[in-house]
Write a structure and sequence with these properties.
Number of helices: 17
Bound molecules: protoporphyrin IX containing FE
Pathway: Steroid metabolism; cholesterol degradation
Family: Belongs to the cytochrome P450 family.
Helix content: 40-55%
Shape: globular
Protein name: Steroid C26-monooxygenase
Strand order of the largest sheet: 1-2-10-7-3
GO molecular function: cholest-4-en-3-one 26-monooxygenase activity; heme binding; iron ion binding; steroid hydroxylase activity
Number of strands: 14
Low-confidence stretches: none
CATH topology: Cytochrome p450
Pfam families: p450
CATH class: Mainly Alpha
CATH superfamily: Cytochrome P450
Radius of gyration: 21 Å
Distance between the termini: 40 Å
Strand content: 5-15%
């Protein structure tokens, strides 16, 4: 692995193509952790930001949620896209999800959906998730002996789960699938609807029109599902605004889908590339809990979130001025040599495993228990039935600074 220069290393974080090249990305992150863990990145078309690459610093920033705010820049996008999102919000039709909000409003809005992700709700959902896991492993057997595991299996299973939780009809699944991909794979040419921010915004408007109709129907006829909880949710006794309601569906549908797909397919690739670990897990299914956690660390589907300083402050002694933004490099935190023994080793028994793939603090992933359960069900169904598996072509990563992972994983296998 060649050593990048300091400037190159920092710029890599603001270059979507770097996320499609693991070697290049990790070489840069390793360099930053060792030599410049609070690095100023100035790489147009992005506005400048401070890249935070040490696990300890990311946790400290997320813990200080009254000093480091999600508003107005919760994630990395180009200056043009930042401006457009702001203008849309001011016009009353932008996106303001949980990840855009700060306390105390954030806490109240989060509480509306939270019951649907608690252990009791997860236990109630488990039968359905197990059933879906079996359905997808059966499908994999039926379409074998080769498939693209990402597009034919990993993408559909979590979408089905999240749509079931929301209570949406099966005939809408295809539409939701392409919308979430267009929305989250925004930087990658394969998923883009168009090249301009306006065309990207059209994706959002499609989401909004679909979910506005849903809100109206669930307000008129509430049912026992998450969509009804959102449609009828209140903050301080008032119903959620139209923007907040539509945004809630958007965050659940989109955050619950691509992220889990990336962790499932990244996890399978790690098992294929580490056959000893795959055998270890097959021999001892009791390791499934730690194995799933390791797959989530290894794949780190959410590459970053950002926070903006509410006051002048410092991180690791580096001054950060009020209004400047910090980029929380989860991919880097999850390979931090100070936290993980041999961070570049995939270990299905890794314990402890303090990865930051689900973030930390008040914004900690609402769907973490659901994602873990889905992965547990799928791999518990798949592994005992898998007689052989190998790559049938090169795996391909998506080019995105936000949520991403494998977009193609061609495999050849024998499945009972
Ligand atoms: C392996 C799969 C997943 C990963 C890696 C992941 C990762 C994350 C991360 C990093 C955050 C932000 C945390 C922070 O800022 O500290 C987040 C927030 C969130 N996630 Fe997930 N997520 C996954 C699956 C899911 C699922 C299945 C759902 C279900 C709907 C979900 C719903 C959410 C929501 C609603 C938030 C916003 C929470 C808030 O801001 O209060 N996620 N997720």
């Amino acid at each position: 692995m060649s050593t990048p220069t300091m400037d190159d290393a920092a710029k890599v974080l603001a270059d979507p193509t770097a996320y499609a090249d693991d070697q290049r990305l990790h070489a840069a992150l390793r360099h930053l952790r060792a030599h410049n863990p609070v690095a100023l990145v100035d790489n147009p078309p992005y506005r400048p930001f401070w890249a935070i690459t040490k696990h300890e610093d990311i946790m400290a920033i997320e813990r200080a949620n009254d000093l480091f705010l999600s508003e107005p820049r919760p994630l990395l996008s180009t200056a043009q896209a930042d401006d457009l999102a702001k203008a849309q919000l001011e016009a009353g039709m932008g996106l303001r999800t949980l990840i855009h909000m700060d306390d105390p409003h954030h806490r109240k809005v989060r509480a509306i959906g939270a019951d649907w992700f608690r252990p009791k709700a997860m236990r109630d959902l488990k039968v359905r998730v197990d059933e879906l896991a079996k359905r997808y492993v059966d499908r994999m057997r039926d379409i074998g002996p080769e498939c693209d595991f990402v597009t034919e299996i990993a993408v559909n299973f979590p979408l089905y789960v999240i749509m079931s939780l929301l209570g949406l009809p099966e005939e809408d699944f295809g539409r939701m699938h392409s919308l979430t991909q267009e929305m989250f794979g925004g930087d990658d040419d394969e998923y883009k609807r168009g090249t301009t921010p306006e065309e990207q915004m059209a994706v959002l408007l499609d989401f909004f029109s679909y979910f506005s109709a849903l809100t109206a129907s669930r307000r008129a006829n509430p049912t026992d599902d998450l969509a009804s909880a959102i449609a009828n949710g209140t903050v301080d006794g008032e119903p959620l605004s139209d923007v907040d309601t539509a945004s809630y569906y958007v965050i659940v549908a989109s955050a619950g889908h691509d992220t889990t797909k990336d962790a499932i397919s990244g996890g399978l690739l790690a098992l294929i590339e580490n056959p000893g670990e795959m055998q270890r897990l097959k021999d001892d299914p009791g390791l499934m809990g730690t194995a799933v956690e390791e797959m989530i660390r290894w794949s780190t589907p959410v590459k970053e979130f950002m926070r903006t300083a509410a006051e002048d402050t410092t991180v690791r002694g580096v001054p950060i001025a009020k209004g400047e933004s910090v980029y929380l490099a989860y991919v880097s935190a999850n390979r931090d040599e100070d936290i993980f023994d041999e961070p570049f080793r995939f270990d299905v028994g890794r314990d402890p495993n303090k990865h930051l793939s689900f973030g930390y603090g008040v914004h900690f992933c609402l769907g973490a228990a659901l994602a873990r359960m889905e992965m547990n069900s799928l791999f518990t169904e798949l592994l005992p039935r898998l007689e052989s598996i190998e790559l049938a072509g090169p795996p391909e990563l998506s080019a995105t600074t936000f949520v991403g992972g494998l977009k193609h994983l061609p495999i050849r296998y024998q499945l009972r």
